[in-house]
Amino acid sequence: MIALQYLRENPDNVIERLKIKNFDASEYVRDILHFDKLKRSLQKQLDDNLAQQNKIAKEIGILFKEKKTAEAEILKERTAQLKIESKKIEEELVKNEAAINEILILLPNLPHHSVAKGKSAEDNEIVSSEGDTTTAPFMLPHWDLCEKMNLINFEIGTKLTGAGFPIYIGKGAKLQRALINFFLDNAVSNGYIELQTPYVVNEDSAFATGQLPDKEGQMYHITKDNLYLIPTAEVPVTNVYRNKIVKPEELPIKHCAYSACFRREAGSYGQDVRGLNRLHQFDKVEIVQITQPEKSYAALDEMKSYVSSLLQKLELPFRILRLCGGDISFTSALTFDFEVYAKGQQKWLEVSSVSNFENFQANRMKLRYKNNEGKMQMLHTLNGSALALPRIVVALLENHQKENNTILIPKALQPYTGFDCI
User: Fold this and answer.
1) Order of strands across the sheet with 368-370?
2) Per-residue pLDDT at 25
3) In the prediction, which pLDDT does 213 show?
4) How far apart are CA 72 and CA 64, in angstroms?
5) Which of 119, 118, 2, 110 is nearest to 334 (CA)?
6) C-alpha–C-alpha distance, residues 320 and 353, integer Å
7) Residue 48, helix vs strand vs coil
8) Do 168 and 152 form a contact (C-beta atoms < 8 A)?
9) Which of 61, 233, 272, 314 lies 20 to 30 Å from 183, alpha-carbon distance?
10) What is the DSSP code (8-state) at residue 119?
C-alpha cells in the first residue's frame, strides 16, 4: 500500500508513475486528498475538544477546593457535552480513516524508474540470454515424452480432481522430489533459513502481501472457514513478520520455503496450458528477503544472480526479462522474469519472477525497524521463485532428450535423483 504521507506530499508524482502501469489514479488521489484534508480537520477539532476538557477539569478541581460547588457543576455539564461531541468526532474519524484505506488499497505499487510503460508481455525488455536453443527434429513436447515414458499422467489427475492436477509416476515423481531438495539445499547454502509454513492463510495474511483484493478471483477460497489456499509460499513466509518491529542486527532476513501452490488460473485455455505449462496445483521453492530500503536493490541483484546459478547448474537455456508497466504485478516495483527455452515446443516458458516490492507490503503489514537515527521506518520486502517445478520439469525433459529415447539428468541433480538418465 502506498504510504499516505508520500501520496499527500507527492500527488502528481503518484499519478504520473502509475500511468506507467496503465493505471489512471487521478480520481483516486483526488478522493484520498479530500478525505485526508477532512481527517486532519476532524483531528484538530478532536485535539481542541480534548484540550478544552483538560482545561475545564483543572478549573473544576480549583472550584471544588474553593467550595464553589454550583459553578463546578455547571462546568461538569459542559464537560459532559464536550465528551458527547468528542465521541461523535472520533466516530467520524474512524469512518474517514476507513474511507481513505478503502481507496488506498486499490492503488498499485509505484513502479521503479527503470520500468518502461508498455502494454503487455510483448513489451518486456530482454536483459540477458544464455544457453543453446538449437532444436532437433526428433525432439518431442513433454506431454508426449511423459506418456511414452509413463512419467506423468494427466488423464488420471483429471478424473480425480480436474484439468491442471496431474499425477507424477515413478521416475517422474522422483524427479519432482529431487528438484525440491536440490532447490532447498542450494538456498540454505546461500544463507536462506528454511521454513515450513501452512498451505492455507487467513484474510489478513492474503491482504498483507497484496493478494487481496487484487487477486481474489485467482485464489481458491474455503468459504466456510474464510481461508485461502496459498498461491505461493511468499504469502505465509512474509506474513511471519506482520506487525513486527525488526531489530537492525537481524537484517537482512532471508528465508526459503517449499510449498504446493494453488491457482485457479481463471480464463486460461489453449496450447499455452497443455501438459505442465499451466497448472492449478504445482510445487515451488520460494525465496524471500526483508531488508533496509537502501539495500533492497542490491538484494534484488543478488537474488537474480542466485536464480541464474540454479538454471546454469541444471544446464538449461534461459533469458532474463525486465517487465514493463503493462505486465508487472499490482504489488511489485520492479520484476525480472526468468524464462527457459523448451525445445520440444520451441517456445519460452516463465519459471521465476524475482521482485522488489519496496515498502508496499511492509506498509500493509506494519513491518518496521528503527533506522540509524532511531526513527521507525518501513522495511522493503522481496521474493522470487527458486524455482517453480512444472516448467523446470518441462525444460529438463524437452532439452535433455536424446535421439535414443533417453533423457539425461544434469550432473548437479544426479545426487538427488539417484539416476543419471530416464
Assistant:
1) 245-246, 368-370, 376-378
2) 98
3) 87
4) 6
5) 110
6) 10
7) helix
8) yes
9) 272
10) S
Residue listed under C-alpha cell 518491529: 245
pLDDT surpassing 60 at residue 39? yes
Q: Please check the confidence at residue 271 and state whether its pLDDT lies above 60.
A: no
Residue 273, pLDDT score: 77
pLDDT in tens, 384-408: 999 999 999 999 999 999 999 899 9
Q: How many residues are listed for the chain in this entry?
A: 422
CB-facing half-sphere around the CA of 236: CA atoms within 13 A: 24
Q: Is 377 helix (H, G, I), strand (E, B) or coil?
A: strand
Closest by CA to 264, choosing from 134, 404, 162, is 162
Residue 385 confidence (pLDDT): 97
Count CB neighbours of 39 within 10 A: 18
CA 353 vs CA 94, 311, 411: distances in Å = 38, 13, 25
Q: Which amino acid is at 148?
A: K
For the chain, the 3-state helix, strand and coil shares in percent, each to the nearest 5, are: 45, 20, 35
Q: b/e per residue, 237-259, with b = 16+ CB within 10 A? A: bbbbbbeeebeeeeebbbbbbbb
Supply the mean pLDDT for the chain: 95
Task: Please check whether residue 240 is in contact with residue 257, taking contact to mean a CB–CB distance below 8 angstroms.
Answer: no
6-27 tens-digit pLDDT: 999 999 999 999 999 999 999 9
* Residue 23 DSSP label: -
On whether the pTM is more than 0.70, the answer is yes
Give phi and psi for 401, each to the nearest 5: -75, 145
Beta carbons within 8 Å of 289's beta carbon, 6+ residues apart: 252, 253, 254, 255, 296, 299, 303, 381, 382, 383
One-character DSSP codes across 127-192: EEEES-----TT---HHHHHHHHT-EEHHHHHHHT-TT--EE-THHHHHHHHHHHHHHHHHHHTTP
Q: What is the amino acid identity at position 210?
A: G
Q: Are 366 and 243 in contact (CB under 8 A)?
A: yes
**Burial state string for 317-338 with b = 16 or more CB within 10 A and e = fewer than 16:** bbbbbbbbbbbbbbbbbbbbbb
Q: Which residues pair with 286 in a beta bridge?
A: 257, 385
Find out whether 377 and 370 touch, Cβ atoms under 8 Å. Answer: yes
Region 305-320: mean pLDDT is 98
> Which amino acid belongs to residue 304?
K
Determine the Cα angle at 180 with ends 176 and 181, to 5°. 120
pLDDT for the residue 269: 54
